[in-house]
Amino acid sequence: MILRFFNAGGHGVPPLQSLPTPLVLSVLSKLERTRPQMKPLLILSLFAIASVISIAQKSTTPKETLYDFRANNKTTPIKIPPATQKMVLSKVFRKYLSDSAKCNPQFEASGSDNYLAAARKAGQIAPSIIDSTTGSFTAAGQTQTAYLISVSECGASHADNFGSDRVAIFAGQQLVADLDVDFRSSFARKTDLNVDGIDELLMTSGYMNQGTLTEGAALITFQGGRLNVIQDFETVTEDSCGSGFPGSAAKASVISYGTVPLGKMPKLQQDNYASTCRNVKRWRFISSGKMPE
What we know:
Elements: H1 2-8, H2 21-34, H3 39-60, E1 64-68, H4 82-92, H5 115-121, E2 128-135, E3 144-150, E4 165-171, E5 174-180, E6 186-191, E7 200-209, E8 212-221, E9 228-239, E10 249-257, E11 268-276, E12 284-288
């Protein structure tokens, strides 16, 4: 009867979900003192009310989607004017080749255990800008452009991900930061989740192996001119539908976040879905957290 009273709403009594938990506990405590014979019912009501409020709070927590990797997110390659390419690349690299056809086929890493670094040092690279975005990346209140560069070291193989990738951040024509981004090769989204005036970048990497596409993602900040990984989601896409193997399937993640605490980064959630291979995929939820293998 007490539980029904609190759930009813109307007649000046707010519905259960609107009552703060301390208020509910206070009312129940007073009723318990005035009517001792109802103690068992009060205890049961207390647990029931707390459970319902908890469920209601969870179900009403707003969620914003940062990125949905289930969607077909095909993008059109950007076109960087030749003058901009030359300005950026000449300030990032001491020497480089304008075309991979000019690579020295006799180049060797001279015993170095880091072939890509040796190729960059020797100028055996044919870099190009593959993506760019504007924002405020190293400090708040800046007008900057982040250029994503495929370094394309000469002779880089599949084992080397066909070369490294870098982000060069410019303020006008001034180079502000130049950082290796660990083979991440796309800007998926720019955002400022903690509302501090400094933009973060959701960056992705991907490779194909025997018809299976694997894609990884990480949320990154370049505050202070340094690369900082806020959260590495690791694998966010695994699609073997192109392989033709029996049991081929697709898996993809949805990255979302809830309420943004003042001045703090919100909690990011990774939900994973799976689908059989078909023209129109029917996704079903499989897990939260890192994508299962």
